[in-house]
Amino acid sequence: MIRACEVVANTELFAGLEREEFYEFCSMTRARDFQKGDVIAAEGDVCSSIGIIETGEVAMQKYTSSGEYTTIGLLEPMDYFGEDLLFAEDQKYPCTLEAVSAVRVLFLSKETVNALMDRCPQVKNNYLRILSERVRIQNRRIALLSQKSIRQKIAFYLLELRSDRDGATRFRLPGSKEVIAKLLAMPRPSFSRELSQMVKDGLILVEGREIEILDLERMEKDIVEGYEISQEEEL
């Protein structure tokens, strides 16, 4: 229970709360471990709890009837899933959640979340903010996919990662290059070739999964369509 409390205390859902306000609810969490390739939730499953990723990385996959899939999102430690479905009329997962590494997830049931909201109004405020963030992420996804060229999509994605890392120009990709290529809806060879060309053009430095943006101004002004506009709208 102590470990569970340490995890949830660092999440946005419990921001602004003292430990004693939610300590008793920690015993109501359920932890599960998954190995790489395990399905955490399949498309069509009914969502009955919020999942908080304690460790590892999770891909949101959309499968076709032929077995092919597209990665529509990546989740990292302290990210959530199911928060947008828990109180929806249709609580079925619209995509499959798959572990892309060893993963531990803490689950908070709908009953526990309701009890928390009744006890702590701040949790309800935090929950609404999390839902708003979910909408913002979806809008960013639409903006990314609207970029016309492979370079524009990659540049937009890297700039958004930089924004998520508090403006750091050096950061680690949240998944393998194969996973990121799927996320950007492009073939892995095309992704790798364009990364290499961006290195040659002096835009970025690549060391495995480590990326460093070398020419931020060119990335923002000359490559990505509407990036500055989208940033102003967010502000």
Would you kindly provide a brief summary of this structure?
This protein has 235 residues and is an alpha+beta fold. The chain has nine helices and eleven strands. Helices cover 43% and strands 22% of the residues.
> Quick one: overall form?
globular
Number of strands: 11
| Proportion of residues in extended strands | 15-25%
The SSE order reads HHEEEEEEEEHHHEHHEEHH
Major sheet attributes: 4 strands, antiparallel
Count of alpha/pi helices: 9
Overall mean confidence score, pLDDT: 87
Kindly state the percentage of residues in helix: 40-55%
Low-confidence stretches: 229-235
Secondary structure class reads alpha+beta
Distance, first to last CA: 39 Å
Which strands sit side by side, in order, in the main sheet?
1-8-3-6
Query: Gyration radius, to the nearest Å?
Result: 19 Å
Describe this structure in words.
The termini are far apart. Helices cover 43% and strands 22% of the residues. The C terminus is likely disordered. The chain has a 4-stranded antiparallel sheet. A 4-stranded antiparallel sheet has the order 2-7-4-5. Strands 9-11-10 form a 3-stranded antiparallel sheet. Helix 3 packs across helix 4. It has 235 residues and is α+β, with helices and mostly antiparallel strands.
